[in-house]
Every structure is written in structure tokens, then in C-alpha cells.
Amino acid sequence: MNKSGILSSPHKHNGSSVRAIMLRVCLALLPGLLCYSWLFGMGVLVQCLLACSSALIIEAILLTIRKRELAMFLNDGSAVVTGLLFALMISPLAPWWISLVGISFGMIFAKHLYGGLGHNLFNPAATAYIFVLLCFPALLNNWPVAGGIFAGIDTLSGATPLADMQTRLAAMGMVSEIQTGPIYGHFAGSGWEWINLTFMAGGIYLIVTGIISWRIPAAMLGSFFIISSFFSVLDPDIYASPLFHLFSGGTMLGAFFIATDPVTAATTPKGRIIYGCLIGIIAYVIRIWGAYPDGIAFAVLIGNATVPLIDRYTRPKVLGEE
Amino acid sequence: MTRELHSFHGGLEFETFKDITNNIVAIQHPLPNRIILPLRQHIGIPSVPLVKIGEHVLKGQLIARADGYVSIPLHASTSGKVIDIGDYPVPHAGELEATCIVIEPDGDDRWCDIQPTDNFLAVDPKQLQEIIRACGIAGLGGAGFPAHVKLHEGVVNIVDTLIINGVECEPYITCDDRLIREKAHYVVAGTRMIRHAVQAKHCVIAVEEDMPEAYAALAKWIDDDIELVKVPTRYPTGGEKQLIQVLTGKEVPSGGLAIHIGIVMQNVATAAAVYRAVTRGEPVISRYVTITGKVGTPRNLQVLLGTPVSDCLKACGYEHNENHRVIMGGPMMGIHIKNPDIPVIKLTNCILVKEIQPIPAEMPCIRCGNCVDVCPIKLLPQQLYWHARTDNLEQAQQYHIFDCIECGCCSYVCPSHIPLVQYYRYAKTQIAAEERKRDGADHAKQRFLQRQQRLDEEKKVRPQTEESDVSTTSDADSDAKKSYIDAAVNRTREKRKLIQDQEKKDE
């Protein structure tokens, strides 16, 4: 910016970088990812590989078309994070081309049409997931039963605990009765409890290391807990327990890794609380009264859409402002 | 009695690098070959030269008068010949040139006649302020706000607390620390003088926790009348608004001044300068400067104002190196200077040499909000950046860009390596330029309308106005100017005569 070569103050930096942040996020995803594949088979790892390579290839193509610097943006790690998150949201049994289709859509429409890294309104991974979910519902709703890492592709498959709960409740089943089924574990879905716990651990690591703020996950899980407790107390026969909701499906992945995507989340301290609460409530509403068994990705996208408004009206008072 | 301390939002904690220089005694830097004195070393209007090229001046002699209220006079740092009055590079973030008086020292370093003031308590506060003003004291902490302006505010308003700021929060800088350790009684006595000048009810001297020696040195000279406080080491505690917040819990109103909440703050070096000005009549002609970083023998120097930076660096065993950058000030707020002939001025607290590190490419903002977390003013730096970048100046003002103190915390933590402060500085300059343009246009329009009205009225009263009227007014103008200059010349002559007499007596 300065032609004379004068360097602007400060002449000191803490050494952080976008790449370091993205790599930290990947690292934090690792325990959840390993636990997931340990319980649900190699399919998870294959999907991760497919999604990450699709993301990198598509990012490279789009950057070339937009005449942007390739090395800098491919190295920033954002494409890999998008790929990983997408792979962790879809079913491990989804066909190989789902990644390519979903990621292409997310990268083009949610990221690069808005101007690329830092400019997008919606989370690219969530957008990609919603796109394939709407286009190919049958393929995406077919999940393996937790059977260990060496379980073959053609082992038992069917509905997730969340989907199962939804259909059986609709068929006048009772929560306590439904939860005795084989796909249910101690307090939530079998296997899903562990996956959610490990993602939660990764998320807490991100909070402790200062990569994400505690506000969004705390607000989202808090509101989610309160609303699910309320209904569960109201009628425990038709509303599953808060623990079941907190530790099933993509709750923890969403709370710590998708809703907290800095680019698409609110940035003011108060705004982050509002944004988190909003996502928690919408996710619950979709899970209980919506057509989709898990509402996290939808809720995040709706949350994303409200960010400019939230940020605008939650500007903190500056020092000495009346 | 311990004061309850408060905290401020954000800020940073990092390695201070103070131990490079803070245990080494400051030495007097020898006379340089030339002294370059910018007419503007303070915030406000430049001073007006009173000397001509070729004239001989004495140390401490008034060489430029203050021009208006927010301006301060300038004095010769040593005796010698004025060899030029012209444009030279001065310390400025945009590397500007400005008018300077250049003196070639004669080597005698001979003082002019100076007037000490005995028993300052018997002097009227207003007169004490005049003495401070006449000695050219600008806030020596870094901003360079003319000291008398702040003090005058103090007489108009009621001052609850006078705070003397010894919190040197930027890394590397130790000039105030050394000054306190070596001249603690100057600081304390100067504090009492400022207190008298503003009639403050309470008085606090604040130093950082990591300055125990300075604390002890001050404690020796302090009675119950002054409160000595240690504040936590955290950047930017030394900022006026932050220190006020830490010490009192009060917030300086946005867009307002400290005096609006009954507080006057001055730097410790300013207090020491006031002591010199009052007890000896000495104007500000030298200061402590920390020479540190990649130099042979880092230390503090007592430098005559106007000494080129290159001279100070040489004295500390530094040889020019392409891979180094020289910074005037600290690493967080200092100015990168490419021309080493730029002089040390009243605001120069430090000269830091750092190795040039490859600057990572600027990435897009990912809205991580780290800048929000560290901003001591509670601004939204990422939003400000957005508006500054897109020249959306109105929005930038709505997001309080003028409250930004340019402390650099936001840039320091930015993972995208965006030079945020540079964007803010740019936006502020743009806004100021536009306002000037608008004001100028308004002013011209108003003048035109007034003139039109006047002409119309004159036509009504005196239909045949002659053009000669115009020339008479300009004559009157030039007469006034001439008599003013004559008066100034006479004053200088008288002063010089006095000085000569004094010299004869001395001999």
C-alpha cells in the first residue's frame, strides 16, 4: 500500500496465520474422526480422503478461473477443513461422487461466487451437505450400524438413531420404549455418544488454545439443552431427553466446528451469544417438528443469514461511549 | 493506603526486552556536527522562526516563537551558527519534509541568560503555566501535546487528580525508567510544580510493576502528598485512556478529553522538564533516548534535540545494514525511518533497530475476531478495516474510527497479517482532508456572500467607492506587520545585548 517502502507500525507480530488456525482445526477434528471410523468403518476415512481431494482440486480450478494466487490460497488450509467437515456430515455409505457434487456446489455457490476466503456469507461445507441432502435424500439417509472399523460396506445399514426416533414417534411410539432398540446406547445413539464426546473434546481444545471463542458453542448447546429439557420435562414420552439430543447426530460437530466457522459466524461478543442461541433453537425445532431428523446444518445456514444483522445491532459500546 | 486498581478491555502481554538497556547508566551524547530543529515537534501549529541564516545563537536561546495557542516556542539546543532554514525530512509516518532550523555547533555549548524562578508555590498558577509554555514543553511521552494547553484546561476546570505517567508499556523502551532512576527528585519536584499549576486535589505517580528500581527511587522523594502506584505490566497501560481506567476505573468520554472527568495526565519526562524550567529557567533542549535492538552497545543516551538519528546510532556502535530497519519509537507504535539523518525531536523516546523479517502476504480477513478481543477501546477492528478499505468513511466514523489510539494490538494478533493500523491512519487522513475541503468551501462561500452583502450595502451608502480603499487597507496591514517584525527584532537585539553583557561579566 505504501509506495515509499515505509513499513507501518506495529513492527511486531504474534506469528499467527490463517494456515495455522486451519491446521489446528484439522487437528482438533482428528479424535472425533478416528472414533467415528473406529465405530462406523473405513468408509469414513475414504469419504474424508475423497472430500478433501475434491475440495483442493475444485478450489484450484476456481482460483485459476478467478486469476487468484494458487499457492497462497491452496496452502491456507480452508479447503481441507471444508472437505473434512463435509465428509463428517455425510453418510459413510454415500457413493464416491457425492463428495465431488456436494463440494463443487459448496465451493462455487457458497464460497467463490461471494469472493472466496473471508467473503462468504454461508458455510461452504454446510451448504454442500444441504445441497446433496436435498438432491439425493435416499443415498444420504442410509447409514451403517455401528459395527467396528472392519465392518464391510454391505453390513447392516439403515436409519440413524435420530431418524429412527423420529419415525417411530410419528408412529405413536414412546421414547422409553423406542430407546430399548439395538441402535441406542447408554443415553443417546449407540456409538454416536462416543463420536459426540470426542468432537466435544476437540472443540474444548480449540477453545483452550484460543482458536474459537467459547460463546458460540456455549450459547448453542445451552439453548439446545434448555429447550430440549423443557419439552422433555413437559412430556418425556414424546420428547427425548436433552442428553439424547446433545449426544446424537451432528450436535457437537455443529456446535464446535461448523457454527464457529469465523467467516460466517457473528463476531461481536454479544452477537455470538445471540447467534449461538438461535442455531440451538432452530436445530431443535427442525429435529422435532421438521421433516429432517437432524437440523444442525440447516440451523447453521439460517444462523449465517442473520449474521450481518446481528453484528450490526450488537456493536459493543466503545470506551467512554454514552 | 493502597489504591484499588481496575482493568481495561483487551491489551497484550509480551516479552518486554527492557533488560537490554534498563540497567545501564545513560550517558551524555557528544555534540553532533549539525543540529536540525523542526519547527513543529508537537501537536498543533508550527512555531515561527525568529533568527536568520548566518546568525549566531546561544544554547537555550529562543529561535522560534509559538504561533497561536496550540503551539510552543523552540530553543537552540547548543550555541552555534544558523546555517539554514529550510525543508528537511522529519519524523513522520509518511516520511514528510518540513521546515527546520539547522545549527552548526560552535563547540562552546554556551548558555544564554536564563531566569530561575524561586519558590514556585508563591507564583500564581497561571504564571507558572506561562513559564512552562515559554520553555517549550510538549508532552514528552510520545504524543507531544503542548503541556501548557493541558495545564490551562486544568485552571479553567476543576482538577481532581493529576496523574504523572511513568508507565512505559511498549517493549524495549527504557528512557523513562532510566530518567526516574537517575533523576527521581526532578520528577517528584516537577510533579509538585505541575500540581501547583493545575491546583489538583490528588496526585498520583504511576509506574509499571516491572520497574521496581524506579519505584524505589521515587519512593525516596515522595511524602504523603503524592501517591505512588505500581500498575500491572500490560500493553498499552501507558496510554492515557487506559492508565486513567486502571487508576480510577473511569472512562474518558468518547471524543472527549481527560479533563472532562477531572483528570490531567503528564509524562514523567515532562515533569522533569518542568522542574528544570522552573528552578533553572532551562527550556527543553535535550532528552533521554533509548538506543536499542541490533546495535553494538544498546543504552540510553542524553541527546540534544536536533541530533541526527544516525549520530546516536553511531555512538552505540551501529553500522548501517541493508537488512535492518530503524524505528523511531517502540515496536508497536514507532515510525519506520529510512533516512537516518532525521533528527531526534521532543517526542523521540527510542530508536530501535530490528532485523527485517520477510513480511507474510496479506490474506483476506477471516473475521476471527481476535482483534475485537485485544482492542483496548472496544472497537470492532475488522468492521473498521472493511469500511476503511472500501473508502466508506461515513461508516468508519460511525464505528468510532477517531477513538482508535493506533496501539497496534489488532495488527499484532491478525492471522491474516493485515496492516490494520495503516488502513485506519489512511481513513483518518482521508476524513480529515474531506472535512478541510468542505470547511474550506463553506468558508469561501460564506466569505463571498459577506463580501457581496458588504458591497451591496456600500453601494447603497456610498455609490462611488474608490478602488484606492483596497490599497489603504493593505498598507495598514503591512504597517502592522512591519511594526510587529520591528518589535520582534528589537526584543531579540535587547536579549542578545543582555546575553553579551552576561558573557562579559562571566569572563
Explain this structure:
- The complex is a heterodimer of chains A (322) and B (507).
- Chain A is an all-alpha fold and 322 residues long.
- Chain A contains 15 helices and two strands.
- In chain A, strands 1-2 form a two-stranded antiparallel sheet.
- In chain A, helix 1 runs antiparallel to helix 10 and helix 5 packs across helix 6.
- The relative contact order of chain A is 0.11.
- The mean pLDDT of chain A is 91.
- Chain B is α/β, with parallel strands linked by helices and 507 residues long.
- Chain B has a six-stranded mixed sheet with strand order 1-14-13-17-15-16, with helices on both faces.
- In chain B, helix 1 runs antiparallel to helix 2.
- The longest helix of chain B is centred in the C-terminal third of the chain and has 42 residues.
- Chains A and B meet through helix 1 of A and helix 8, helix 11 and helix 12 of B.
What distinguishing features does this structure have?
heterodimer, A: 322 residues, mainly alpha, two-stranded antiparallel ribbon, 15 helices, globular, B: 507 residues, alpha/beta, 6-stranded mixed beta sheet
Main structural class of chain A: mainly alpha
Q: What is the overall number of helices of chain B?
A: 13
Distance between the termini of chain B: 54 Å
Largest Cβ-defined interface: A-B, 43 and 64 residues
Q: What structural category characterises the helix and strand content of chain B?
A: alpha/beta
**Helical content class of chain A:** 55-70%
Query: Termini separation of chain A (Å)?
Result: 35 Å
The total strand number of chain A stands at: 2
**Outline type of chain B:** globular
% residues in beta strands of chain A: under 5%
Coarse shape of chain A: globular
The order of strands across the largest sheet of chain B is: 1-14-13-17-15-16
* Average pLDDT over all residues of chain A: 91
Helix content of chain B: 25-40%
Number of strands of chain B: 17
What portion of the residues of chain B fall into strands of 2 or more residues?
Answer: 15-25%
Please, what is the oligomeric state? heterodimer
Q: Which regions of chain A contain 5 or more consecutive residues with pLDDT less than 50?
A: none
What is the string of helix and strand elements of chain B? EEEEEEEEHHEHEHEHEHEEHEEEHHHHHH
Low-confidence stretches of chain B: 465-473
